[in-house]
């Protein structure tokens, strides 16, 4: 969004006129640098396009063009009073598997390509503006403020036309592309966890059970008492394997959630929390939300209560789940240092989860923490995540999800 308009031009050299003159004089250097960079970048990357490094080099070049655009926006803010929103950063991708999504996103980056166009078309105007200002200061200084205003108005229009995010849709597309990567990574991590739990838990126990029963079969005629003891031991192993499979199934999607909804499922989770004085649960909803929303809400509260059990040192905890029909209002990036995460920009109803405890506090959503992972998962579905955790003052975590009716 642009803010404000330059004051009316006067024949005297007011402060705004000197700023505009400084802008036009400095434009010669910046436009020369930008033009040379773009020509060299496109020429080299185009010549190497048939090789393995051509497209990655072009992607890096477009990233550099983005930085040139950032510099030009800063100059326009400082000297021309043009304030425009910064475009959304290109989402980062970790590891080799994320290289090709990053490459594709970078090559079709509209912000980078518009910055390239700006650098190309700005050169003749930069040379013209510099020449006119230098000549006008010595020859036509009484009318120079009017000429300068006309030239800088052209620059203002170019900055607003080429160096701003095209619209909210572009920003939203970039956010969704980033969120898709988070969802895919989270799903892959969950599949790896399930595979590991099956391999190291129930599968290993069933293999041992099969071996034990085989030995018992061999001893059945020779030593019935020993065989009976081995069968009895195998029976115990079966019970443990069944319990591990139930725990694993509960981690995927608990039956109580499917059958009875959030109230019963969260009460079951709260009963397993190890705080001394227990956990109170309050669920006030007009009905059951969509299965996906319900599942995310369940696992969010489950992980938060696990954190309370392991790290909070609390005596009591409380869980509340409510339906709110009005938006909280306002976008805003969250702070990783313990503030809010997520966009919170949707205009419909929402599901609000709140988990509080009276523990030691000091919880943070820094990178690598469980809270950071929760925040990213909620952000991927247009959720919002807020942590309030002063040292020694307990912790209150509020999570919001867009409400969707169950179909």
Characterization of this structure:
The protein has helices at residues 15-47, 54-80, 99-107, 110-138, 144-162, 168-219, 224-252, 255-260, 262-272, 291-312, 370-380; strands at 279-284, 317-324, 340-342, 350-357, 384-388, 395-402. The chain is an alpha+beta fold and 407 residues long. It has 3 domains: 15-166, no CATH class; 181-252, Single alpha-helices involved in coiled-coils or other helix-helix interfaces (Up-down Bundle), CATH 1.20.5; 260-402, Histidine kinase-like ATPase, C-terminal domain (Heat Shock Protein 90, 2-Layer Sandwich), CATH 3.30.565. Mean pLDDT is 79; it is low at 328-346.
Write a brief caption for the model.
By secondary structure, the chain is an alpha+beta fold.
Q: How are the SSEs placed, and which strands pair?
A:
Layout: H1 15-47, H2 54-80, H3 99-107, H4 110-138, H5 144-162, H6 168-219, H7 224-252, H8 255-260, H9 262-272, E1 279-284, H10 291-312, E2 317-324, E3 340-342, E4 350-357, H11 370-380, E5 384-388, E6 395-402
Parallel strand pairs: 1-2
Antiparallel strand pairs: 2-4, 3-5, 4-6, 5-6
Helix pairs in contact: 1-2, 1-4, 1-5, 2-3, 2-4, 2-5, 4-5, 6-7, 6-11, 9-10, 10-11
């Amino acid at each position: 969004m642009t803010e404000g308009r330059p004051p009316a031009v006067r024949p005297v050299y007011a402060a705004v006129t000197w700023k505009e003159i400084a802008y036009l004089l400095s434009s010669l250097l910046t436009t020369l640098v930008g033009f040379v960079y773009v020509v060299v970048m496109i020429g080299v990357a185009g010549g190497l396009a048939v090789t393995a490094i051509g497209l990655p080099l072009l992607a890096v070049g477009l990233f550099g063009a983005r930085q040139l655009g950032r510099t030009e926006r800063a100059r326009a803010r400082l000297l021309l009073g043009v304030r425009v929103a910064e475009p959304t950063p290109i989402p980062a991708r970790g590891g080799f598997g994320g290289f090709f999504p990053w490459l594709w996103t970078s090559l079709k980056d509209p912000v980078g390509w518009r910055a390239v166009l700006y650098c190309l078309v700005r050169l003749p105007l930069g040379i013209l503006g510099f020449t006119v200002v230098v000549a006008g200061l010595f020859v036509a200084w009484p009318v120079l403020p009017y000429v300068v205003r006309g030239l800088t108005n052209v620059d203002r229009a170019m900055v607003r036309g080429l160096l701003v995010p095209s619209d909210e849709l572009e920003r939203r597309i970039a956010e969704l592309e980033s969120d898709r990567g988070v969802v895919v990574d989270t799903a892959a991590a969950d599949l790896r966890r399930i595979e590991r739990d099956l391999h190291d838990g129930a599968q290993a126990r069933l293999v041992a059970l099969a071996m034990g029963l085989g030995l018992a079969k061999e001893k059945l005629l020779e030593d019935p008492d020993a065989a009976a003891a081995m069968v009895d031991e195998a029976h115990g192993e079966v019970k443990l394997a069944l319990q591990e499979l139930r725990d694993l199934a509960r981690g995927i999607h608990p039956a109580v959630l499917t059958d009875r909804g959030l109230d019963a499922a969260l009460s079951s989770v709260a009963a397993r929390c190890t705080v001394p004085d227990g956990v109170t649960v309050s669920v006030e909803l007009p009905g059951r939300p969509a299965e996906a929303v319900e599942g995310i809400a369940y696992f969010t509260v489950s992980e938060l209560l696990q954190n309370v059990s392991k790290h909070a040192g609390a005596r009591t905890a409380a869980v509340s789940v409510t339906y709110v029909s009005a938006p909280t209002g306002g976008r805003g990036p969250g702070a990783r240092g313990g503030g809010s995460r997520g966009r919170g920009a949707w205009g419909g109803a929402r599901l609000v989860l709140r988990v509080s405890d009276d523990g030691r506090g000091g919880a943070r959503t820094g990178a690598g923490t469980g809270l950071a992972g929760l925040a990213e998962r909620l952000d991927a579905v247009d959720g919002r995540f807020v942590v309030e955790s002063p040292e020694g003052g307990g912790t209150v975590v509020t999570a919001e999800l867009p409400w969707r009716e169950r179909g």
